[in-house]
Amino acid sequence: YKQIFVGEVIISKGERVTPAHIDKFTALGLRHPKIDYVAALCISLLTACIVSFVATYLVRYHPTIFASTKLLVLLSLIVVLSVLGLKLGGTMLGLTFSGVQSGYFAMIWIATAGMLTAILLNAQLAILIVALLSTTAGLAMNHELRWALAALLSSLVGIYVVSDIQHRIDLMRAALAVCAANLAMVWLIGRISGDGLRDLLIGSGWAVAGGLGSIMLFWIGAAALERPFGITTRIRLLELSDTNSPILKRLLMEAPGTYSHSIFVGNIAAAAAEAIGADALLVRVAAYYHDIGKMKRPHFFVENQYVENVHDRLNPSLSALVIRSHIKDGVDLAREHGLPPLICDLMSQHHGTSLVRYFYHQATGEELAGSPMLEQQFRYEGQKPQSPEAALLMLADAVEAASRTLAKPTPSQIQDLVNAVVDEKLLDGQLDESGLSFKDISRIKDSFVKSLTSMLHARIEYPELHSMEAKKARVNGSTNKEQSTATSRPETAE
Hints:
Shape: elongated
Number of helices: 21
Number of strands: 0
Strand content: under 5%
Order of helices and strands: HHHHHHHHHHHHHHHHHHHHH
Structural class: mainly alpha
């Protein structure tokens, strides 16, 4: 591998032509100054075959991606950016790379393309993309199989570690994993190729720098591409899971009861999601934000009431209307704060078309119970849960709210409560479109019972504290009685 710089003299007049000169003539196209149409045709055919193969794969295994022009544009953009980064990255940075260094540089961009494809589109598709990119990169670099193999294995490790990011620490682990994979490739393939110790040490430095660089490019690329294409990445969910976000801090200040309820729902829903293999991080984040619409009228919801229940002064129809409106208010607020569409969808589905049962029975009594037209007026106007995560949010929300009615909960009471709430949603048809199986529902019930039992454990009443509080109450009662008597006596003139 040699570098030819602008203004460099290739051969001087009268100088003897050597094989090195011929190599430079060939590289610059001076030996065949005309366009090689056969080579151009072969390159075009190879590119067409690769694109056709990817398209066929998408039609067969990922029809949703193939049907979306936006997602196809995103896939194309990732591939084009990775190729441009490989071809022009060194030039844009003002660096000149040798052939070996170009190989390490290719590993960075191919791994980045694989990780971006995995987190923005699909992990299986990412494996195919990095396989094709690695092969073509090895072909472009003078048929160097070692770089194709190194880039492929490094990218596979990157895809694996970023596909299931649950915590911020996972990003650091991803960086370490990619660096370790790069180091392993340098030493294993280097020893097979007979590289010296100096080359291996230099390669190790490139391996670590390349691993960190690919993770950095991945982070920047994911942040830049997810919002324009309407995709919710694991990284975005991690950012939203921070309870110090402005909207959650506002929820804590304006509707503290709802905030506590949301955190509780997030915990039990995430545990149930892990039990059935659903997306625990998505469910937890959606639970944190699912009731932010209650901030518009916080005192109309029982968890935020401390003095009186305002619904005592309203008719049941108006009360139900206010209760149902928190869905639309929440979605509008979420969009205003730029929450991802996926979170907004789960928020809009977390009550489905459920019946506001308390106010419905309050309005109907016995004689009108069962009227379909009246019942429709007391149902939420949302869409039934369309995914296991949306169904989990609905069930966790209902179970947590019902658990507040248990004064001294016991495991058997909690189990009966969970069964009643989940079965009611099931019989009402709210889970018909969620994709949950009866086996999943059984596991969800068990997880809810386990979570609620640990969170709602009975507390011991301390006799000393109880007697002190009773004595204090008697004293306060006597004082209040004396004050009341004094107030009731007419004032006399001096």
